[in-house]
């Protein structure tokens, strides 16, 4: 990442954007992408019915989005931290969480079990690459480091949920 000297107001504008928009969006996208994996894949592996995995994923994405919106919106007023309007941060975080969860839920609309799994896994890979790129672009975190750290979390969650789904 190239470092450029910014005028104080440009620096403040960038900092405000990162604190008030980009960080809540990243929190939501990462949480949605990771937290919804467990119920989706547990249901998919337990039932081999993509339709049920879709409904589990949709319900989880909606619930997680609402939960994260309230969590972020109620975490602080933004006055002391400079993080901006709590309602806007909550809306951004909630929308990001829903989006992060629903993207890899949509492949389970495919009625063939194996095809749905393959498309869902490809979607998750695309999500992880996109999240790593966003962390690199907005926060200067190394792309590979971001990808590996997010992928490890996803692999742990997917592995545990697959084991739970296989128990049935």
From TrEMBL:
Membrane as UniProt keyword: yes
Keywords: Membrane, Transmembrane, Transmembrane helix
Keyword Membrane: yes
Residues that span the membrane, as ranges: 24-46, 52-70, 91-110, 116-134, 146-167
Entry protein name: Membrane protein
């Amino acid at each position: 990442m190239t470092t450029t000297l910014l005028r104080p107001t440009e620096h403040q504008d960038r900092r405000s954007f990162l604190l008030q928009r980009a960080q809540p969006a990243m929190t939501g996208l990462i949480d949605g992408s990771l937290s919804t994996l467990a119920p989706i894949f547990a249901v998919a592996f337990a039932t081999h019915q993509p339709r049920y995995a879709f409904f589990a994923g949709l319900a989880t994405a909606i619930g997680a989005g609402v939960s994260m919106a309230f969590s972020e919106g109620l975490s602080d007023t933004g006055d002391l931290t400079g993080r901006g309007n709590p309602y806007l941060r909550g809306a951004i975080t909630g929308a990001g969480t829903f989006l992060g969860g629903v993207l890899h839920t949509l492949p389970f609309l495919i009625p063939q079990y194996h095809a749905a799994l393959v498309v869902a896994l490809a979607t998750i890979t695309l999500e992880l690459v996109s999240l790593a790129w966003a962390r690199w672009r907005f926060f200067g975190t190394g792309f590979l480091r971001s990808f590996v750290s997010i992928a490890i979390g996803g692999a742990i969650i997917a592995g545990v949920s697959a084991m739970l789904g296989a128990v049935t």
